[in-house]
Known about the structure:
Chloramphenicol Acetyltransferase; 5-stranded mixed beta sheet; 28 helices; phosphoprotein; AMP-dep_synth/lig_dom; Amino acid adenylation domain-containing protein; phosphopantetheine binding
Amino acid sequence: MAVRMMNRVANMGAKLPLATLFASPSLSAFADEIKKHLEQESDTVLPAIEQIPRTEALPLSFAQQRMWFLAQLDGVSDIYHIPLFIRLRGPLDRKSWQLAVNDLFARHEALRSVFVAVNGQPHVRILPSEGVPVGYIDLRGTTDIDGQLVNLAANEAKASFDLSTGPLIRVTLIQIADDEHLLLLTQHHIVSDGWSMAIMTRELRQLYSAHYRNEPNPLSPLAIQYPDYAAWQQQWFTGDQLKNQVEYWRTTLADAPVLIDLPTDHPRPPQQSYVGSRVPIVLDAELTSALRRFSQKHGVTLFMTILTAWSVVLSRLSGQDDIVIGTPSANRGHHEIEPLIGLFVNTLALRVDLSGRPTTRDLLERVRRCTLAAHGHQDLPFEQVVEIVQPPRRMNHTPLFQVMFVWQNNEASEWYLEDLQATPFPLHYEISKFDLELGLFESDEKIAGSLRYATSLFDRSTIEKHVGYLSTMLREMTANEDQLTSATDLLSPAERTLLLQTWNMTQDDYPTDLCLHHLFEQQVARTPEAIAVVNEDKSMTYSELNARANSLAHHLIGLGVEPDTLVGICVERSLGMIIGILAILKAGGAYVPLDPAFASERLFDILTDASPSIVLADTTGAAVIQSLDLSRFIMVDPNSLLGGSTANPQITSLSTRHLAYVIYTSGTTGKPKGVMLEHFGVVNLVKFRQTSLDLDSRSRLTQFFSFSFDSSVCEIFPALSLGCTLHLLQDSTRLDQHRLWEYLEKHSITHVVITPAVLQDCKDLPQLSTPTTFIIAGEALPAALVRKLNVMLPNCTIINEYGPTETTVAATSWKFATDLTNDIVPIGRPYANKRIYVLDTHGKPVPLGAVGEMYIGGVGVARGYLNRPELTAEKFLNDPFAGDADARMYRTGDLVRYLPDGNLVYLGRNDHQVKIRGFRIELGEIEARLHEHPLIAEAVVIATGEMANKRL
């Protein structure tokens, strides 16, 4: 209606922007604007479209050029077919129908156009107006008519057109009964569009009625034809007249996102398949009425209101606040082309800005301005816009946008044929040119339509949820226009329960009254003579290890160690390392690991921050510490035989809420930060490891990681708490694949915690005779490596584990069961007594499958960062979902999403932190250090390469 109104105004000589219509509060005000414009001298009136000579080679419009090029690229394809199937009940006069089709074919040159290449360039030729034969199939008396109709309709819709020979329209009548037919009408998009379909149905109805009654042709002659428009467009768009439109689109779409990163159920294939399906949408009369009132109140169209809601949904799903959505524009800005059949439709790229936490009212105004501005610059063909903006071209998605919104508000394409009842015949044929295409129209008192989707990307259940989100957002908008769009809860109660409760039902019993060393002491009582630790050619039984640790612990108590006292330990990987760790815990203290291989500056920073008065150090460690030129510590060699009591110390003031260790991780300020972990979280870890990995006295575990890295915690303590044998791996074994493999085989190792980088280049390695469980931790696990390990180690188990230091080593795990069907390697489900939340930037749960930041709650959340109260308050938050006022959760900074089965997928960081060979590195820390150099003004640090080859 707006297009027709503005065309009438343009015929009066006033080419007004569409925004003028919306800015006018009444018809009289709009009339005043027209009068004002006519009184001013203006050169903005578009030149008239004039007839051109009909030569052998006529020009294509820009849209036709693009479609012709795509046809050459894709070959024979039904992607751009427009099928229409109608069931006709009543006496059909086939002769009148044939004559009506012939008249329509003769009337519109677009339908008679064919496209031929001359010297490699496409041109249009017009076929004679001899008509199009209407096919006829008689199914009367046959069996399974419905099945045959479905097959015939699908085959008709897919049957190819030859653009060079034509005709590019087919009409077939299938007779089902004496008074019932199915009309199959298919066109190629290169000669038609949605507006044209309305023209076609209206004119065929009029022509059929005229022939049926033996009346003259009722249609008025056409002033111009489609080739005249194509020639006019080629002339009009080669000059400087559209400089402002070119500049508008160049500026508006500058740096637009290449892809809307919607969560998909399947990996994006290398090339679009165009296979689609759809989910119906019906907005009930109550909601439709509310949307009309809301739109009228704010001076916007229903299209703008729904676009606003749809933009919010897409933003919440993708995690992006810069959304580009395509929408078709009729592009019938001249009165004389309104009655023409042809490809006139243009596509507008609407860029919606959702940044800054707008309210519904604010965002609606943004969408209104965006839509009106785009329509004010709609003359420039989309093909030209793409050339101007030059977005990256990829075969697996459309350029500029991947989501289309079609509002079908042109005249209803209804059939009223003489003595016939016409009803649509459902199409069992779906094409999806985009990732998503939302199509809506007003139907009586409701808004109806569908959400079409690419089946190569999405499952139906996912799209059904999207439809639900849209309906929820529309209801929320009309109910509270001042609410922040980010505050709207899109989730249904069922989905909210699933994400926050069902998938977090991880409650399990664990010893809540025991500290870590208590678990070890209980095991000593059960298996005193079993081998506890092996280090090269040396070993210790459980009783020997306990006695040595107790002796050292009593010495530490005598030096003043008590609960929460921090004790440093700087030793090489040795039996003394295990003795020292246990002794510190038995004395009630918390150990601070100091790997003597670390850079001296890092050790200096840790010792300065932790300020331990006592450091356990072997010969190597003592030399490193003395070189740091710090104030003297009390240093004790854990390898020394100190004598004294070997009985288990009894620290009555010690509880499971006291610190077990403080491990330092990378920090953005250039200084490492100490994470304070308490006993109860590690005890819970040990219990879960026991049940999930079947650990017992027959198990043999390796100690692979540096004890300054938190993965060492889940190597050492489960082993010593459950009667296993812990094998300490020296660097000569750890860093050589073949030596490592020989060690695993020789010692019949059952469990290995390892980084994927170590296994990356594994080849020509023999199978292990002992079924071994490989727990992959420290960095992302590539799918290719999983497949390689599955082939190389068919009798072994592969577990992918995830967890930040701040939540006691591990939070989720995933066990590889069968061959991967895609390249997604999940990080799994939460550990026992852990809770996982995937939240948006405003702390709200994201929809299932959407990208969000992972928050971890439950047992094992760290006390915080040592001496960093501000950072602790920023990263350790109250847990609003646990139903416990004292519950806390940790904000990881990791981006994840849920799979439909409840497994999580790790997607990366939302800050400057990376992992290299299992170590967490803050790029900002390195940049801060570089900035300290007087000759460096600016510094940027990036990580390049993959896995073992990853470098800064």
